[in-house]
Amino acid sequence: MKVTFPHLGTMHIFCKAIAETSHIPYVVPPETSRRTLTLGVQHSNECICLPFKIILGNFIEALERGADTIVMVGSGPPCRLGLYDLVHKVILEDLGLPFRWLTIPPRLTSEALWKNYEETKELKKELTWKNILLFPYGLYMGWKKMMACETLEKLAMKVRPKEIQKGESQKRLKKALDWVDKAQTPKKVEEALKEGEKLLLNTDQDPSRAVLKIAIVGELYTVMDPHINRGVEQKLGELGAEVTRSSWFSTHILRSLRKNKANRLSERIQFLEASKLYLCYDVGAECNVSIGEAILRSREGYDGVVHLMPFACMPETTASGILTRVGKDWNIPILTLLLDEQEIEGRIQTLLEAFVEMLQWKRKGS
User: Fold this and answer.
1) What's the predicted TM-score (pTM) here?
2) How many Cβ atoms sit within 10 Å of the Cβ of residue 266?
3) What are the pLDDT digits (tens) for 25-53?
4) SS3 content of the chain, % helix, strand, coil (to 5)
5) Hey, what domains does the chain have and what are their CATH numbers?
6) Strand (E) positions, the chain?
């Protein structure tokens, strides 16, 4: 058995840690590339969303490298992520690729547990007692590494807009994330985090530089994965904006575990409450959060909001129309970027440059 999983930001570090610590063989898909996207587009319906195509490409490349067991998360309506596993399985079977499948349910219901039992009863035969006994420790190691990665990414967001040499903080972030990835014990993870923070803080910066504050909202996959959003987070930082976002892998794990009373999710609850000014029901996925976050960021004095969504994403299409009104009502500029498989990096760069320049003029005039 060799398990694999799709890319989503630094999620592969979390998944690797679980597999390595539990002594479960694994295959990390190659870094998402143009070939990944081409494979996904080639074998998908043209109207399906970009994350579907990228994830399919990840799976094909991982199976080519020897993986035989795919681990995929599930979801609920109206986001089609909940149906990805069904459609991906059909496509991969049609391609003649041998594989087995394990779906991680978004909610631990009796139906989900029964489905998992059916999917895992053969896989369990290949797991040893050592794998099973080490798995809780593997989850702990994965969580430690994930929290370290998120801490480093948040620090890089603060450093990037003031760096003197563009791209320097990104290089240092990659090095720091690599240290966390290679750490073999919780103590080593903590040491890697401290060294990574020190490395980022030692980036040459201009403390006098005026910095804009921009929130990134939208569909979680396009917000969290730089390959999907064409590095919007980094681009905005290098244009002189401090970026924040509420979508992190850890918050989505806590939400799936129904840890709604956790402090890390109190902000999300506030977003959902704020969205009730425009939506009296939960549309699903990140729609309500996108709207509520834009409202609260306006109250907090943010200069602007960038809304990311894949082409044909139903919840974010709903949010997009409402965000136009939110921008007018709350006097906060909102830029919506529609992402698909087309080569649009140059267009995105131009739009971001114009957006940042407009925000700078707005700040000077206020």
Assistant:
1) 0.89
2) 10
3) 999 999 999 999 999 999 998 888 888 99
4) 60, 10, 30
5) 3-127 (3.40.50), 143-206 (no CATH), 210-366 (3.40.50.11900)
6) 3-4, 69-73, 100-104, 212-218, 241-245, 304-310, 334-339
